[in-house]
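Q: Please design a sequence for this.
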């Protein structure tokens, strides 16, 4: 799976941001020509490795159960999960300190990369996750429009403190783009992620956009263990 060269990506990134087309990341996505079913279970140790790029996480790092979600901000199934099941998971399990929830970016297109970059530029996991919630909530306003995506994203971003300068600087951050691309590539190569959302609960794969009851069936027995 070949990635575009860093120089070419940087040029495309700057051009996309300047023109408002947000096409900078499209060519950076690995091809899915030969999709394979991912493993049913992966090494928790490997899953938790971060290589210097921090996770967006909610809940205590000492929790006995960790959910890792790979998602794209332009994915309709991901939006459905975050609109429906996630608030219940947060209320029942995250806010009570029972589990740790990790959101990992798996952008499916240039717009998803842009949204993920803006979320990362907020500075903390809590602020990033708050912006991610807003981007999912307003997905139709920026992710699925024929034009004006950049302006729509800025209208959302400025509500959480972005200025035009900080907005443009974020979307032209080559290091951040490379880090997000690396997360995306590793998800494919190491864990067989090939669709969004994909969940790993203590390393065991749960794919799709399940309802809260399906999470309960997996989480409750794990939490009941001594």
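A: Design:
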């Amino acid at each position: 799976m070949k990635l575009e060269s860093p120089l070419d990506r940087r040029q495309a990134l700057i051009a996309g941001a300047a023109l408002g087309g947000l096409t900078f990341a499209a060519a950076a996505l690995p091809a899915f020509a030969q999709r394979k079913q991912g493993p049913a279970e992966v090494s928790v140790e490997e899953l938790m490795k971060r290589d210097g790029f921090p996770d967006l996480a909610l809940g205590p790092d000492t929790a006995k159960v960790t959910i890792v979600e790979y998602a794209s901000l332009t994915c309709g199934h991901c939006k459905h999960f975050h609109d429906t099941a996630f608030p219940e998971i947060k209320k029942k399990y995250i806010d009570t300190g029972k589990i740790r929830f990790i959101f990992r970016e798996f952008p499916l297109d240039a717009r998803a990369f842009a949204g993920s970059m803006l979320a990362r530029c907020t500075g903390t996991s809590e602020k990033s996750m708050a912006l991610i919630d807003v981007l999912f909530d307003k997905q139709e306003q920026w992710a699925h429009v024929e034009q004006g995506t950049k302006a729509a994203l800025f209208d959302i971003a400025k509500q959480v403190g972005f200025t035009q300068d900080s907005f443009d600087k974020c979307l032209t951050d080559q290091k951040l783009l490379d880090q997000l691309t690396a997360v995306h590539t590793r998800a494919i190569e190491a864990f067989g992620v090939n669709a969004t959302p994909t969940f790993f609960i203590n390393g065991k794969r749960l794919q799709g956009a399940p309802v809260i009851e399906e999470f309960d069936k997996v989480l409750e027995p794990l939490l009941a263990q001594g």
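Q: Thanks. Anything notable?
A: DSSP finds eleven helices and five strands in the chain. The CA atoms of residues 20 and 151 lie 8 Å apart.
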